[in-house]
Amino acid sequence: MAPIRVAVANRPRLMRELVLETIAEQPDIEVVAEIQDEDEILGIVEDTHPDIVIITLDGSDERPHLCDVLLSRYPNLKILALAPERNSSIFFWASFDIHHNHVEASEAGILGALRCQAVGG
């Protein structure tokens, strides 16, 4: 089984070092990037293709805007946001639902399903 690829981008530096130390000896986890400047996260994620990015959770437990940006570009990515001063962490990932309707097995049913899809219904 391939190792879990992790990019560590949380701050401050001491917290990032503690996270790196925690996962350093894990045989099933590979650190693919240590990101010191948050402005570099998008480019490094694009270059290294991690499975998980670890970031800092600021202020409240609201989802950081960075999560929306990353998950819209990389829907298979997972994000672990840490707030050490509150001893809190949140795991973010994207998902989608698959919907269905029964369609009458006729010309009208097929055309109706196609037209509903065409208008976003």
Features:
alpha/beta; Rossmann fold; 4 helices; 121 residues; five-stranded mixed sheet
Write the layout of secondary structure elements.
Elements: E1 4-8, H1 13-24, E2 29-34, H2 41-48, E3 52-56, H3 65-73, E4 78-83, E5 88-93, H4 107-118
Parallel strand pairs: 1-2, 1-3, 3-4
Antiparallel strand pairs: 4-5
Output the radius of gyration. Answer: 20 Å
How far apart the termini lie comes to 41 Å
Main β sheet profile: 5 strands, mixed
Coarse structural class: alpha/beta
Shape by Cα distribution: elongated
The count of strands amounts to 5
Per DSSP, what share of the residues sits in E-state strands of 2 or more residues?
15-25%
Number of domains: 1
Q: If you average the pLDDT, what whole number results?
A: 87
**What is the class in the CATH system?**
Alpha Beta
How many alpha or pi helices?
4
Kindly state the percentage of residues in helix. 25-40%
CATH superfamily: Response regulator
Q: What is the fold-level CATH name, i.e. the topology?
A: Rossmann fold
Spatial ordering of strands, largest sheet: 2-1-3-4-5
Give me the strand/helix succession: EHEHEHEEH
Low-confidence stretches: none
Second-tier CATH architecture: 3-Layer(aba) Sandwich
